[in-house]
Amino acid sequence: MKKMNVSQGTVLLGTAVLLCLCLTLITDAYGKGKGVVSSIRDGRLERLVNSDWRQMAAAQEVSLGDRLRTDRTAVAVIEFPDVGKFVIGPSSDLELGKDTKDFRTRIARGAVWLKAGLARGSKASITTSIATAGIRGTSFSMVFGEGEKVICVCTCAGEVEALTKTGQKIKVPRGQYLPLASDGPIPAKSETSLPLLEKKGSVFDFCFNCHIVGGKGKLNPDWK
Question: What is the pTM of this model?
């Protein structure tokens, strides 16, 4: 067997370490700031690319800052590592957050449900023209707006804090919701969401993947 001298071993070791480092950097870079379309139920999900709306399909990547919209029948599920799972309701138009440490999503219209799976020290929020719903930890909440006139923040688990345009902060605990109107008084506190979960034919219909319809606020046992 041919012997390898010390200098050759050092060079090979250095090359191996450099190669390992390069592969690690490439792996870290790939997927950083990337999410995926888990599913699209009915209708169309589209992404704005250079002023042109382009249809998306399941398993496609989405990026930080992407602007997405659904048609009036679609329900789309988007997942981001270190952020969580988004369910986008019909007739929605939103811009995804640009920073996984402070993931600020903006809704122009429609409804978004978020199950947060945030890394330690990170936070997320969903903003409309009327208010912002701030989320930490593993809370999950649904936010919807009717144009620029009404917003509703509904919490399924954990606790969400709504911040109004006037700077008022209102806690929205599990099983509660907070309706806010652009031209109406600000409620002193949130209220039970049971009446909303008891009926069909509302914006909450797509949220019944996690709730039992008429189940007094109970979650489906097979909810994921």
Answer: 0.77
Out of 20-29, 146-155, 189-198, the most confident range is 189-198
Domain ranges of the chain: 1-30, 34-209
Cα separations (Å) of 177 from 8, 79, 137, 191, 216? 68, 24, 19, 5, 14
Question: What gap in Å lies between CA 115 and CA 108, rounded to an integer?
Answer: 20
As a CATH number, domain 34-209 is 2.60.120.1440
pLDDT reading at 34 higher than 60: yes
| Three-state SS at 86 | strand
Q: Is 83 left (phi over 0), alpha (psi -120 to 50) or beta?
A: alpha
d(CA 117, CA 139) in angstroms, rounded, equals: 8
